[in-house]
Amino acid sequence: MQAAITRLGRNAAASMNDIAQEAGVGRVTLYGHFPSREALVEAALIRLLARGEDVLEAIDLTGDPRDGLRSLMESGWLLLAQAASVLQAAQTTLPAGRVQELHAKPEQRVHDLIRRGQNEGVFRTDIPADLLASALHHILHGAATDVATGRLDAADAPRFVAEMTLAICAVPPASPQQD
């Protein structure tokens, strides 16, 4: 499994042969454990999501929702950066909707935090929580793409991701009253 994560992490299009080579086994052995590339890619993504879930569960989300969101986005960025190519392989290999299904628990955590922040008056309510969560998801993926293409320094990404997400969720300033 680690060989699949490693090889797919370097090349989302890695073949079963490439992964078998990385693991130091033959293709027949690899196919003995995983009947298809699709099954192997899904198993690799599930393993990475489980590792990520361990990290995300440790984040205290009981305090100020802004602090929780900052922590989630900074940690989420690091997790995504580590898994970007495996996620790309999953998106091109797995059936439509399967990647979203596997991400349901982490996404629910973000949705719940945004809704709590809206209820407490610290996040905007003029945009639905689901749309805000979707925007945050796109920021994470956009930052990963920008790091991969050299447009963004990986060391800056966690701070930028957190600042952008907080800016998007912030309650907009009141419009000046016109007389």
CATH top level is: Mainly Alpha
Main sheet makeup = none
- Which range best describes the helical content: under 10%, 10-25%, 25-40%, 40-55%, 55-70% or over 70%? over 70%
β content, as a range?
under 5%
User: What structural class is derived from the secondary structure elements?
Assistant: mainly alpha
How many domains? The number is 1
Unreliable parts: none
Note the run of SSEs as H and E.
HHHHHHHHH
Backbone shape: elongated
CATH superfamily: Tetracycline Repressor, domain 2
Number of helices: 9
CATH fold category name: Tetracycline Repressor, domain 2
So what's the oligomer here? Answer: single chain
Number of strands: 0
Global mean pLDDT: 88
**Radius of gyration, taken over Cα atoms and rounded to an integer in Å:** 19 Å
Q: Would you identify the CATH architecture?
A: Orthogonal Bundle
Head-to-tail CA distance between termini: 67 Å
Report on this model:
The chain is mostly helical and 179 residues long. The chain has one domain: Tetracycline Repressor, domain 2 (Orthogonal Bundle). It is 72% helix and 0% strand. The protein contains nine helices and no strands. Helix 2 (16-23) crosses helix 3 and helix 5 (65-93) packs across helix 8 (129-148). The longest helix is centred in the middle third of the chain and has 29 residues, at 65-93. The chain is elongated.
